[in-house]
Design goal:
Elements (H helix, E strand, L loop, with lengths): L1 E5 L4 E12 L6 E4 L5 E5 L2 E7 L4 E6 L2 E6 L2 E6 L3
Parallel strand pairs: 1-8
Antiparallel strand pairs: 1-2, 2-3, 2-5, 4-7, 5-6, 7-8
Length: 80
């Protein structure tokens, strides 16, 4: 899956990912390859990404929005 994580100031992650775990406003959830399309708001918490090299990246977020469609994930964050 292709993942972009963007704040108003900069792009903090761009690349392929195996999984993305997000702090959804109605509970945390995980996106894996071929996940159904989804748009969700995010609350304060930790966003975890496992890339294609099995390296884990963690980002503490204050909130934002996520869109997933056809294995392309865009995360727009308020701050990091």
């Amino acid at each position: 899956m292709f993942l972009e994580i963007i704040t108003p100031d900069k792009k903090i992650f761009e690349g392929e990912a195996r999984s993305v775990k997000l702090p959804g406003s109605k509970g945390s959830f995980q996106i894996l390859e071929n996940h159904a399309p989804i748009i969700s708001t995010l609350k304060k918490g930790t966003l975890k990404v496992v890339d294609n090299h099995n390296e884990e990246h963690s980002f503490v977020v204050e909130g934002g929005v996520i869109e997933n469609n056809k294995n392309k994930i865009i995360v727009l964050l308020e701050e990091i």
